[in-house]
C-alpha cells in the first residue's frame, strides 16, 4: 500500500482521550467525549432502557434478519415522535422512512440519496462550523461540501445576517444541512422567530433542507419543544430529509438506532422513494417529479442493500418498546428530562462559579447555549494551557461536553478556566 493509504490521521478527540488517559493527576477532567455522563461522571444506562430490554428478552424473539427498511413498529413510532401526532404528511401517508445505523448511518443514506436521486445539486451546504463527521460523510457520498455562515466569533452567537446572506446567494434548489436543535459543536440555535425567517428564505429559494436531529428531547428536556424547527418546516410545506438518532436521547449509542425519512409530495412519490431506498436491481419504471431515477449509470437502485443489507434488530426492539409501551414511554420521557436538566444545571453552576471567582469575562453564552456542548469562545492556546497546567481536556476549538461536568469537578473547571482567561 502507498504511504498515503497507510498514513494514520489521528482523530481530534481520540488525541484528547489518549492524553487524558496518560494524565495521572486525580483532578483531571475529560470534556471531549460526546456522550452523557451521570452526576458521578459515569456512563449512564437509562432505567427505562433496562426495563424495555428485560421486556424484549422475555419475549424470546428470534434473531432473523429484519427487512431492508428495518422494524416497521419502530420506524412508525419514531416518525410520530419526530413529526408529531398531528403531522399532515404522516396522516396522508407520504413519509418514506427506513431504519438506519443511528444518526451517522441516516446521514450516509441521505448523502447517497442526494448524490443519486436529487437532480438539482451535487453539493451540500453545511454550517460553519459543524459536527466534524458531516464533512467526510457527505464527501464520501460523492457530494461537494460547501459552507454557510453560522458562528459569530465576536458575539459567541449566531451570525444570522451571514446565514441569511449565504442562503440568498446560493443557487436555487441548493441542499442545506440544518441541525434541528442543540447545534454541535456551538450549542447555538436560531430562535423560533429566526427559524421562521430561515424557512421563508428556503421556500423562496426552493432550497432543500436536510435536517439532522441527533438531540430530540435532549436539548430542553421536552420533545415537542425540541421538535419545533422540524415541525415548523413541515407545516410550511417543505419537502425535506430527516436523520434521526436515538444515541443521545435513549443512551443507545452503541446499539446504532436511528431513522432516515423523506417527506414526499404525495403517496405516489413516497412509493417511488421507498423503492429507491429498498428495491434491488435496475427497474427504471418510476419517473418522479423530484426524484429522477438513475437512467444512464446502471447503478443498482437500492441505497441500503449494497451498503449494509439490513439494520440490527436488538436496539430497534428496545427503542420500539420505549416508544410504544405507555408506561415505559412516560418513564423514558421523564428520564430524558433528568438528563437535559442536569446539563442545564451544570451550565448555570459553571457560570455562577466563574462570576464568583471574579472573572471579568462575559460568560452568558455558557448558560444560553443549548444541548450537550458549550462553545467557550477561548483560543487553542488557552485550550492547551487548560490541558497542560490544569489537567482539563477539550477539543482545540474550545468546545466542552457539558455532560462531562459534575458537582465534584465543576469548581476545578471554573478555577482553571478563570486562570487561563484572566489576563
Ligand atoms: N449529528 C450530530 C450533530 C451529532 O452530534 C451526532 C453525534 N455526535 C450525530 C449526528 C450522530 O451520532 P450517532 O451516529 O451516534 O447517532
From TrEMBL:
Task: List the residue ranges forming a coiled coil, or say none.
Answer: none
According to the entry, every stretch annotated as the Aminotransferase class I/classII large domain falls at 27-417
So which cofactors does this thing need? pyridoxal 5'-phosphate
Q: What InterPro entries would the database entry show?
A: Aminotransferase_I/II_large, Asp_trans, NHTrfase_class1_PyrdxlP-BS, PyrdxlP-dep_Trfase, PyrdxlP-dep_Trfase_major, PyrdxlP-dep_Trfase_small
GO CC annotations?
mitochondrion
Which major enzyme category is it? Answer: transferase
Q: Name one Pfam family in it.
A: Aminotran_1_2
Q: Which domain of life is it from?
A: Eukaryota
What's a GO biological-process term for it?
A: L-aspartate catabolic process
Q: Which UniProt keywords apply?
A: Aminotransferase, Pyridoxal phosphate, Transferase
Enumerate the catalysed reactions: L-aspartate + 2-oxoglutarate = oxaloacetate + L-glutamate
Give the multimer and partner information.
Homodimer.
Q: Which PANTHER family match?
A: ASPARTATE AMINOTRANSFERASE, ASPARTATE AMINOTRANSFERASE, MITOCHONDRIAL
Q: What else is known?
A: In eukaryotes there are cytoplasmic, mitochondrial and chloroplastic isozymes.
UniProt record similarity statement: Belongs to the class-I pyridoxal-phosphate-dependent aminotransferase family.
User: Any idea what this protein is called?
Assistant: Aspartate aminotransferase
